[in-house]
Design goal:
about 180 residues; about 15% strand; 4-stranded mixed beta sheet; alpha/beta; single chain; 2 domains; two-stranded parallel ribbon; Arc Repressor Mutant, subunit A; Double Stranded RNA Binding Domain
Length: about 180
């Protein structure tokens, strides 16, 4: 996939990056150790993209992401995405994940069951591990069957996932494992 532009923006969890095409957001990069490392990652993932000011629609997407990361009720479901390069199964997983509201969680198995493939929780996890638009497709809201955080491929790993869930009100700071039923 070729993104036409990208930009960095500061958030409560660090400098994130966003890449876009004419169709919508193609990528949302969670913070690396530094803003320069985030920029370098974006340049590797979308080598033809030019760092530039985001167009109005992308600017609105950034504002909605910022609101969510500040703990505000911010619905990201309507942000247009360009996931054309993602495999069809991954796009189906992402559609389900986008329905998980802030402060709530689902398990990999629950997503697999909702897709009619109850024995493919591992494949759901692999799809989410390749999620190009983290936060907008809230892979951080998906937990293991036992409610444990499991892996998280962003810089900071599980601690980043936990922090994002805490910002959304899914768990108190220092709480034990998160369970979807706690959020009901």
């Amino acid at each position: 996939m070729t993104a036409q532009g990208f930009a960095l923006f500061d958030t409560p969890i660090g400098a994130c990056g966003i890449a876009w095409t004419a169709r919508g957001v193609a990528g949302l990069q969670l913070p690396e150790a530094t803003a320069d490392a985030t920029r370098a990652r974006l340049k590797r993932r979308w080598p033809g993209a030019i760092e530039s000011a985001p167009p109005p629609g992308i600017g609105r997407a950034i504002e909605r992401v910022l609101g969510l990361l500040r703990g505000e009720a911010s619905d990201l479901a309507g942000i247009p995405l360009d996931l054309e390069a993602a495999p069809e199964f991954h796009r189906r997983v992402y559609e389900v994940a986008r329905t998980i509201p802030p402060g709530r969680t689902m398990t990999y198995g629950e997503i697999a069951r909702s897709l009619g493939v109850p024995h493919e929780a591992r494949e759901v996890g692999q799809a989410l591990g390749r999620n190009p638009v983290a936060i907008i497709v809230p892979c951080h809201r998906v937990l293991g069957a036992d409610g444990k955080m499991g892996g998280f491929s962003a810089n900071g790993g599980v601690s980043t996932k936990r922090r994002m869930l805490e910002i959304e009100g899914a768990a108190a700071v220092g709480a034990g494992p998160l369970f979807a039923q706690q959020q009901q």
